[in-house]
Amino acid sequence: MRYDVVVVGGGPAGLVAALTTKKFYKDKKVLVIKKTEKELVPCGIPYVFHTLDGVENDFMGVEERFQKAGIDLLIDEVVGGDTDQKKIVTKTGKEIIYEKLILATGSIPAVPRIVGIDLSNVFTISKDAKYLSSVLEKTRTCRNIAIIGGGFIGIEVADELKRAGKNVTVVEIMDCLLPVSFDPDFGELARKEIEAENLKVYTSRKVVEIYGSKSVEGVKLDNGENIPADAVILATGYKPNTELARQLGLKITEYGFIETDEYMRTSKPDVFAAGDCVQHKDFLTGKPSRLMLASAAVFDARIVASNLYGLKVIRTNKGSLNAYSTVIGHKAFGSVGITERTAKEEGFEIVVGKAEGIDRHPGKFDDTSKLIVKLIFSQDSRILLGAQLYGGKSVGEIVNILSLGIQKGITANDLFTMQIGTHPLLTSAPTSYPLVIAAEQVLH
Questions:
Q1: Which end of the chain, N or C, is less packed with Cβ atoms under 10 Å?
Q2: What is the largest CA-CA distance in the chain?
Q3: pLDDT, tens digit, for every residue of 348-375?
Q4: Distance between CA 103 and CA 431 in Å, rounded?
Q5: Which residues are catalytic?
Q6: Which residues contact 45 (CB under 8 A, 6 or more apart)?
Q7: How far apart are CA 127 and CA 106, in angstroms?
Q8: Do the Cβ atoms of 14 and 22 come closer than 8 Å?
Q9: How confident is the model at residue 444 (pLDDT cuts 50, 70, 90)?
Q10: Phi, psi dihedral angles at 403 (to 5 degrees)
Q11: Would you put residue 297 in left (φ > 0), alpha (ψ -120 to 50) or beta?
């Protein structure tokens, strides 16, 4: 078989890479190769345990979108190839010749080395629909579940399992929950939210053993405490899926990611990469980042696809900002940029503004929520470096706007003098708008 553009992977990066390619280059023949029949919405995976009530309600629907766009789809696995001959080979023996190759192979769960990891009922949060269906089925009969890892995935899965009627314990090795994206003050807010739902939380604790005869019976902590459990879920992060890239001879970074330039071009001609498998760099420090987000993946994919046959779309965003949002209990948490802790570790001289308020005015509306805003600025220039928020659903979009602000070098003065639109049912009051108040604090 011969194609103009071949995309390996059907997740967010693969989907957007293929669709954008077809939009920019309508006459090109495009093929997507993916291993699984159905693709999941990655950020929706934790919610299959209760809110979505099943894996089938989290399908992304890429298959239908490919068909509608005139993109060919092959369910198979690419196991090798030759970049000099511009050829790839699949597990079923198919040989495919390409003009341009895009690797969007994503990431896989990172499994820690813990005694007892091979016991029955030890699970990861994989992005494979069949595997997750089996996890969901098995956990339905479990009463006590221990989750190792207090990051976004661990907390979201814990919250969902609790809503499904399970006794849930979360163990996090760092000193607070959500330690990568939030400072301890916001980590403590997260702890209070999930403890209010009667979840048990351990921070600054390490699981040293998962014990049981054949199946899980509990976990042992580094302080000697034993926690009974019928199942253990490993939410200890992900690692880039770069086995194919290595086989094709692409350059791999020290952290195991595919190395690319600003336009997602790899070390081999006409081979590109996008998404979790790619090494990103931090927007503010320029250092390698372990970023793995669907939002970053689709940004990569658009840059790749629009520039396959020449640089049509110039990239102005030179790094990744790590914009996150989640819901814990009944509150939303959001962050973007660097935390106060990371800023100090990196040597930034900073000043912090923090404001509390409510997201409606007056505060008698049923959906009114407390809103906390923390803004981290450079001490001398007052340029915004990072932000953390806690509150209602508006937090998600506020984080997105602040992400753009950081990209554009927004300052405390810009936020203090920003012109805002407000409405009682939608926003905080103009007299006490938390973003403005937090910025005002650092201008005194």
A1: C
A2: 69
A3: 999 999 999 999 999 999 999 999 999 9
A4: 50
A5: 43
A6: 58, 125, 127, 132, 153
A7: 10
A8: no
A9: confident
A10: -60, -45
A11: alpha
Q: For the segment 4-39, what is each residue's pLDDT rounded down to a tens digit?
A: 999 999 999 999 999 999 999 999 999 999 999 999
pLDDT computed for residue 317 by the predictor: 78
Give the pLDDT band of residue 122 (cuts 50, 70, 90). Answer: very high
Let me know: does 387 contact 399? Beta carbons within 8 Å. yes
Classify the phi-psi angles of 87: left when phi > 0, otherwise alpha if psi is within -120 to 50, otherwise beta.
beta
* pTM (2 d.p.): 0.93
- Structure-block tokens of residue 202: 């351990």
- pLDDT of 334 reads 97
